[in-house]
Amino acid sequence: MPGDQAVVHLTNAVVMSQGFPLLSGADLEVERGCLVVVTGANGAGKTSLLRLLGGLDTLTSGAGSVAGVDLIDGDLRLLRRRVGWLGHEGSFYGDLSVRENLVFAAKALERPLDDVEDALTRVGLAHRADTTTKQLSAGQRRRLGLAWLLVRRPELWLLDEPYASLDDAGREYFDHLLGDVLAAGATVVVSAHDPLRSGDLSPRTVHMAGGRVVAS
Amino acid sequence: MTRVAWLVAAKDLRIEARSRVLLWQVLPFGVIALLLSGLALGPTQAGRSSAGPGLFYLVTLFVTLLMINRSQALENAAGTKASVATLGLDPAGVFLGKALALTIELWVTGVVLLAGSVLLLHTALIGTVHALPSILVTLATLAAAGTLYGALTQGGDGPATLLPVLTLPAFAPLLIAGERSFSAALHGGALWEWWVIVVVALVAYTAVGILLYGVLEES
Amino acid sequence: MIKISQRLLGPVTLLLLVLTFWLGLWVTPPDAVQGDLVRLLYIHPPIAWVALYVSFGTATIASCLYLWQRTRSDNLDRIASCSMEISVVFIVLTLITGSIWGRPTWGVWWAWDARLTSTAILGVFALAYLALRRANDDPALRARRSAVFAILTAINVPIIHFSVVWWKTLHQGASVLTSTGQLNVHGSMLATMLVGFVGFTLLFFWLLRERYRLEVKRDLRVAHTVDEALALRRREGV
Q1: pLDDT at residue A145 above 50?
Q2: Which partner from A126, A132, B107, C32 sits 20 to 30 angstroms from B13, CA to CA?
Q3: What are the chain C neighbours of B156 within 8 Å (beta carbons)?
Q4: Hey, where are the domains in chain B?
Q5: Which residues of C touch B177 (CB under 8 A)?
């Protein structure tokens, strides 16, 4: 159930890359157990925001903390272990099989290996477990990304345009999965061009433009 | 650290066994390079075993550059880097794992190139076998150094062209030590100075890698 | 006190260098064996000293301090990069003066001598450092990677030195002090050499200061650009 403790707290967050401000002063609060959808046009800064929250980019100025880790002085490696990332691109080693990728993730985080088979079944990839990931379709790679997150069980899920490459059945399955994840107490931040279609999830929507949150 | 090292090494070696880039691309390149070096020496010089050690190591250096790029490229495919970063692996373990995997790949390559050296450049078989310990340690040192320098080049402009600029000066003393110890094994001569160079370099690169690989990964 | 010494640095450096050249070219006698060729020894060892010890040493210390979180600062990164730039210049001068000395002595412009060879390799290291900096636009990324590379270079200095020395050496032995600590050079020659060492060392610090100032100005200009970029980006959201 949503708590009153902020998992994400950003104040005037600026992230620069090669002289360009990816984020130009973003403010954001996300409470534990919430679903937040970040919308905006291409280039608005949605992916950059998620990368900052995941500890994948560093704060140039401003202040922030995510999952209890300060973004300036904190241990970003610790932060990264607490978050789960699903990007647009494939997330895995192309020459390893579906199962081998998940086993690698499980062993890295010292999770039980039984979780791998459960995750494969939940995302509907059990029959492709021994296929190398470069042979998967885009939609199947997206499902593998979800399986990776199910194995990891992070406290903060960061999903960058997760509906891309999914068909209607895939999107419905994904919404159902989001519901389960939220019910289990995780916090989810999703980036999308448009607000979520599903009415069951009651997300909070924030809109970005020009590297900042302009509406919430 | 050790657990992560074994995990990463096993992953890299599994990918190599699956993709067979070493078998179908790197080894043929090494053999061609040995052939070309013989051709460059000319018909009267090509079969002289005195040139063997130097040419073996020169070709090995170029092969090592290819393998370093390959090792780093595994981690830098679009999306892989971000997802693996969220696993929060101990950077010292990642360094040791990648260096270990690269060492084993270089040992395999080294054995093939040594066979080529015996066959094409007429280095004596017995002497070549005696040189094996120093060769294996030198290759391990190249792997440790290469893993570090390889990490320095990723994400910037032109990693493939920047890598030789950064690594070849560092490989120069290893080339000298390797060639001298191989020659000493073939023709006699003192070995201990060359062992000192290689072992000191191996310890130094391993220590720096364990201490500072995390800084490079943060980069 | 610091401001006075900063103001005096340039004039004192110039004075010492002029003194070195005057003493070296006109006052000191030719050597009994090398003749007038000895006059190169008033500048070649000092230039090599600056190239391989002073500038490399400064870059390494600044890099170590940069990597240590307590002392990390952009100033240290600037000092390290400026030192390496100066090192490249001095290494080239070392090789040129060494070759000029070597041609009549060894009969060739380049011999695979231990010191020349190791100097050339370290010169490539310094160039590689600059290449690495140019390959990365992000200031923090560039600074961290350069610092690690500088430390790796420092580790390689003794490794390269011993590997090349054991490989081969034609270089003349210690010019000033023998291995037993006895002075090899006497009188006006020694004085001239010492003036040269001090003069070229001060020249390094003067060049470092001027180059550092240029770097600060450049970074200020970049900071203005960043402010403008932020303002422009924010207008996208309006």
Answers
A1: yes
A2: A126
A3: 132, 135-136, 141, 145
A4: 2-218
A5: 163
